[in-house]
Amino acid sequence: MFKHIEVNYKDKIKIISLNRPEVYNALNTELMLELKQALLESNDNHEVNSVILNGKGKAFCSGADIKEFENQLDNNDAILKRAQLTKEIHSLIPDLQKTIIASVHNYVYAGGCGLALACDIVLAADDATFSYPETNRGFVPALVMPNLIRVAGRRKAFEMLITGRKIPTQEALDIGLINKIFSEDNLYDETLKIAEEIAEKNQDVLINTKKLFNSVESLPYDSAMEEAKNYNISMRQSESFQEGVKNFNK
């Protein structure tokens, strides 16, 4: 069904793998369109509770396919469509109902780093390096900038963007880019364990926890507390809450 990604399922988990290993999973338009479709289909699949996003071969993702950019230098329509597509995917992942876990190794660069940081959870192999090398190539790291600022904070994000330096895994953990580090050999199995732990929970609870989290994250404190209070009231009237209370001491 797909040419540049691979999709597999394990119980309630959907595994989406970037599958252009010969170019370190560089992001071309076809891959991005397939990725968008696979992510959207996750929302409509009630058998899926969590999604893993990883990369086949020797790296997670080296960033945008520069060869494709070279072929689009004089094609304004293609430039506009690709920029819009990248924006849509970065905005789509937080809005998806399902928890998206990025499982990354080796190169996590440029657009690949932006894609990983758009996910809800990021798990990394100990060989992973994170970088926004666009300024070294004469580019402005535009579409990857908003998520990085939100994740890393103003000071560290600016340093990463302006220098383009490579961030090793331990530093990435220390500054909050990633959640956990595993050995390269254990990354897949450990990712599955976390995805399974999430996937076994009540689907409505998972969906609404992510929705509320992303809503209150950007609000001023008082507004966030008001929204959380209102949701708490409605949640306590839900069937899943009432079942949880009844089963608590069983």
Question: What would you say this structure looks like, in words?
Answer:
The radius of gyration is 19 Å and the shape is globular. The chain is built from 11 helices and 9 strands. The longest helix has 20 residues, at 76-95. Helix content is 51%, strand content 16%. The chain has 2 domains: 5-199, 2-enoyl-CoA Hydratase, Chain A, domain 1 (Alpha-Beta Complex), CATH 3.90.226.10; 203-247. By secondary structure, the chain is an alpha/beta fold.
Evaluate the radius of gyration: 19 Å
Structural class: alpha/beta
How many distinct domains?
Answer: 2
Helical amount: 40-55%
- What is the architecture of the largest domain at the second tier of CATH? Alpha-Beta Complex
**Order of neighbouring strands in the sheet with most strands:** 1-2-3-4-6-9
Report, as a whole number of angstroms, the end-to-end distance: 46 Å
CATH-derived topology of the largest domain: 2-enoyl-CoA Hydratase, Chain A, domain 1
